[in-house]
Amino acid sequence: MRAKISGVIVVIAVLLLIATTAGRASALPGVDDVVPAPNYDVAQAMLPTPTGDPFFDRTPPGLASMKPGQVIAIRDVSWPGKVFTLWQAQRVVQVKFRSTDAKGRPSYGTATIIMPPGDITNRPVLVNNLPIDALGAKCTPSYALAHGYDPLTTSATDYVPPTTLLAIKRGYVALLPDHQGPKMAYAEPVVAGHMILDAVRAMRSVEPALAESRFGMTGYSGGAIATNGAAKLLPEYAPELARQAVGAALGGTPVDARVLVGSMSPWYNWAKGLFVAGVYGISRENPEILDGVNNLGKWAAPIFRDLCTVPAAMLGPLTIPVEAVSAIPDPFRSPLAQKIYRHFNMPGKRYGMPMYVYNGAQEFWIPAIMAQHLYAEQCRLGVRAVLRLAPGEHAIAAVTGLPGALQWLDARLQGVSAPNEC
Predict the structure, then answer these.
(1) What is the pLDDT of residues 40-58, one digit of tens each?
(2) pLDDT averaged over the chain?
(3) Is Transcription found in the keyword set (predicted)?
(4) 152, 308 in Cβ contact below 8 A?
(5) Lower CB density within 10 Å: C or N end of the chain?
(6) What homologous superfamily is domain 1-422 in, according to CATH?
(7) Where do the structural domains in the chain lie, given as residue ranges?
C-alpha cells in the first residue's frame, strides 16, 4: 500500500514539474527538446502494466480462428465476489472470451456474471456497464471481484449507486463487462461496444439457461460511453442478440467529443484529469493519434499508464495540457481531431434497442446538450426513446436521475413495451 501511495505522489510531483513549463510551451522552444531513446515505441510504453493474473494478462493463442464471444476460460470467484454483493449472490463466475478491437482485429475480453439465488432459467439480465474511467489493468470491476478491495484501484462507483446489488435482490442476473478491453482503452466506444456484446454472447454460452433471457443495459458517465457504443453497434456486430435486447438506460452522457473539448479540457478544470485519460485511452486503440504527439508527450506517456479513477480525477488542473504535448498547432481543430470526433461520436448509427437517456440539468462538465442531441438523433432514426433532465450536476444527477432510469429498465426486463416520447 505504501508503495502505491508513493507512486501516486511521484506522478503528481512530476506533473507539477512539467506543468510549470509545459503550459508555456509555445513561449519556451526548449521545452520539447526532450528526445526519446532510439527505437522508443510510445504505443508500447503507454500500455498498462500486467496485473500478475494470467486470466486478465495472457493473450490466448489462436484468437483469429475463434468467433466473437467464444469462451476461452471460466473461473468461479464466488469468494471474494459474494462479499461485494453482501452475500446476496448465489454464485459469481468470470468468463474470458474472444472479442474484437477498434480496428476489427481479434482481441479478448473479460466479464463477471453474478447469479441470484434459485433457478436462473430465463431470468432477466442487467448488463451493468460501470464507469471504469481508468487506465490501469487492476482498475476493472472483475479484478476487484477476484482479488478484493483496494482503495487505490477499486472505484467507489463499482458499488455506489448499488445498481448491481439491486438487480440481484430483484432476482436478476447481473453481467459486469470489463468494457475497456485488455489495453484499458478508456472512452473508446467501439472497443466498449464489442466487449459488452461479446460478454453477452459468452454469458449465454457459459449459462445456457440464459440463452433466451431478456437483457437490458445501463451505464453512467464513462459507463454511458460504453452503453452508447454497444447499443449503436448491436445491429451490425451482434444482430442475433436483437430479439432479447429490451433497452439501454444511460445517463451523464459524454457522447460528443466536440462538446467535451470545451467543457472538460481547459487548464483550470478539475475534470481535465479524466479528459486527458480519455484521450490517452482512445490512443491505445488508435495509435495514429500518436503521430501528432511531440517529444515531451512521448517522454511523459508512461506516467499515466496505470492510473485508476481516483488518482486521475485528483490530478485535475495538474494534468499536462493536451496542447503542450501536441506537435499539431491548434490540435482540437485539426483534421486528426475531426477524425477522432467522428469515431467517438458514432453519428447516424441507430440503437438496436429502445433508449432512456438522462442528464443533470445543471451539468457543466458533461452538458445536457449531448443527451438532448442523442435523443433527437435516435428519434430521427426511429428508436423508441425517452429523455429526462434530472436536478443537479454530474454527481447529484447520478442519484436523482437513477430511480427513473431503473424503473424504466425494470419494466423492459419484465416484458413491458417501451414507451415512445419522440
Answers:
(1) 688 999 999 999 999 999 9
(2) 88
(3) no
(4) yes
(5) N
(6) Alpha/Beta hydrolase fold, catalytic domain (3.40.50.1820)
(7) 1-422
Count the Cβ atoms, other than its own, within 10 Å of residue 246: 22
Smallest Cα–Cα separation from 289: which of 240, 327, 244? 327
Asked if residues 112 and 141 have their Cβ atoms less than 8 Å apart, the reply is yes
Q: Who has greater pLDDT, 374 or 20?
A: 374
Preceding omega of 80 cis (within 30 degrees of 0) = yes
pLDDT at 131: 96
141 vs 133: CA distance, rounded Å: 11
pLDDT band (50, 70, 90) for residue 129: very high
Angle, helices 189-206 vs 335-345, to 10°: value is 30
Question: How are strands ordered across the β-sheet holding 173-177?
Answer: 71-76, 91-100, 106-115, 173-177, 125-129, 215-220, 245-251, 355-360, 385-390
89-103: pLDDT as tens digits: 999 999 999 999 999
In angstroms, the CA 409 to CA 165 distance is 15
Assign 162 a pLDDT band (cuts: 50, 70, 90): very high
Question: Beta 245-251 vs 215-220: how paired, if at all?
Answer: parallel
* Structural element, H or E, at residue 296: helix 295-300
Q: Helix, strand or coil for residue 250?
A: strand
Sign of torsion over alpha carbons 294, 296, 297, 298? positive
Closest to 248 measured CA to CA, from 363, 111, 346, 375: 375
The x, y and z cell numbers of residue 8, run together, are: 501516486
